[in-house]
Amino acid sequence: MMTTRSTKFLALGLLCFCYVVGSAPDMTLKNKICNAQKFMPWDSFASARGDVLNDLSANTAKNGYNYYSKAESNGESCYGHGACNGALVNADCASCMSFAKDRIKEECGQSIGAQIQLQDCRIRYENYLFSE
Question: What sequence ranges are listed for the domain Gnk2-homologous (predicted)?
Answer without folding.
Answer: 27-130
